[in-house]
Write a structure and sequence with these properties.
- This is OmpR/PhoB-type domain-containing protein.
- Residues 240-353 form the OmpR/PhoB-type domain.
- By secondary structure, the chain is α+β, with helices and mostly antiparallel strands.
- It has helices spanning 3-21, 28-35, 46-63, 68-75, 79-102, 105-108, 110-125, 132-135, 144-152, 158-163, 166-172, 178-200, 204-208, 219-230, 240-250, 274-285, 293-300, 309-326, 331-338; strands spanning 253-255, 262-265, 268-271, 291-292, 341-344, 348-351, 358-360.
- Helix 1 packs across helix 3 and helix 5 runs antiparallel to helix 7.
- The N and C termini lie far apart (63 Å).
């Protein structure tokens, strides 16, 4: 009785099942690697067997059906090994997406490019596509397990949670811990306030000509105009508003512990992962000082003895890439993005932003 051989057979047939379920059996890469070998006397080499196990592990991981403990027991790995493997393949998917984008896939094969980008996100989060909206909120404690439960009950994104009635929110208590529900409600309140502020922002044309706004029905506009008319301009410092604007423009990076899901760079908001935020926050606390790689690894990957430098480098590259997507393609901006982080050979890493350009809340 050969237990190892049985395990190989099980892995092999699971892979074949997935290939045909996805209707990919006609592709040459699968025919040569899996289908034609099925009838051969020696099914696979050790290398092939390990590749199959990795494939099945990552498939189970991104499906989100199995808890981490179950994955550890089934594949004889620890949590850190699973996360490191997923992170490595996430980096490969990111790299593939970047190559595809430079090859013109954004116009020629937009759907395929989007699939690669979504796969990259799923690999880092360990969930199905339907749960990515919740994962992007980066709410502390909202794990893949709880995201799966919310998706199954119809709360796949923030919009569905906002529309939920009081009775439906009470029902969530059965699905999630009370503390986590409070965090979600706080985030919903924050999002609601942000949306209200955006909706109440006056249009430039209205502000530029107060006399033309007497017929406006907006209470907020009337209040602002009343204050402008009733309060004469201050003569002691005519440039005070200009100075305030200039001071605000000097801020390059804004980080808030209350919003670990995003960073503001040069006035523009972009999303970050939990690890990406932790890395930026750690470096911001030691601004203009070198933080050793050992200290970063210990702080960000506590308890993982085999955490390596490449994990730091991956998140640095991802942050730069995400910022580049939303910034104007100017030479000055490219240099600023490239110079956010400064690597000191043999010592560590530092956030290359001056104290007056950094705002931490």
């Amino acid at each position: 009785y050969n237990h190892e051989w049985d395990q190989e057979e099980i892995c092999w047939h699971r892979i074949l099942g997935l290939i045909f379920d996805q209707r990919e059996g006609n592709k040459e890469i699968y025919r040569d690697k899996f289908i034609l070998k099925e009838g051969e006397e020696e099914t696979s080499t050790l290398e092939d067997h390990l590749s199959c196990k990795k494939t099945l592990l990552l498939y189970d991981w991104i499906k989100g059906n199995k808890e981490m403990k179950s994955l550890e027991q089934e594949y004889f790995l620890y949590e850190g090994d699973v996360l490191r493997l997923a992170e490595g393949f996430c980096w490969l998917a990111d790299s593939l997406a970047a190559i595809a984008e430079s090859a013109g896939w954004k116009k020629k094969r937009k759907e395929d490019l989007e699939k690669i980008i979504l796969l990259s996100e799923r690999l880092i989060e360990g969930i199905e596509e339907e749960g990515l909206g919740l994962a992007r909120l980066y709410i502390p404690g909202l794990s893949r397990y709880y995201i799966k439960r919310l998706v199954r009950t119809g709360y796949g994104d923030m919009e569905n949670l906002k529309k939920a009635s009081e009775e439906e929110l009470v029902e969530l208590v059965r699905l999630l811990p009370g503390r986590l529900i409070k965090r979600i409600q706080r985030r919903m309140d924050e999002e609601r306030v942000i949306q209200e502020v955006k909706n109440c922002e006056p249009e430039p044309a209205i502000l530029s000509s107060p006399l033309k706004t007497t017929n406006t029905t907006s209470a907020s506009h009337n209040l602002k105009l009343t204050s402008v008319v009733s309060s004469p301009p201050k003569t002691e410092n005519p440039n005070s508003n200009l100075n305030t604007k200039n001071q605000k423009l000097k801020i390059v990076l804004e980080i808030s512990q209350h919003r670990p899901d995003r960073i503001i760079f040069m006035g523009k908001e972009f999303k970050v992962t939990t690890i990406g935020f932790s890395l930026l926050y750690l470096l911001a606390e030691h601004r203009e000082k070198v933080v050793s790689y050992e200290e970063i690894l210990k702080d960000l990957w506590k308890g993982e003895k085999d955490a390596i430098y490449t994990r730091i480098n991956y998140h640095i590259c991802k942050i730069r890439k995400d910022i580049s997507k939303i910034m104007d393609k100017k030479e000055d901006n490219t240099k600023k993005i490239e110079n956010i982080f400064k690597a000191i050979p043999g010592r560590g890493l530092m956030l290359n932003i001056k104290e007056e350009e950094l705002e931490i809340n």
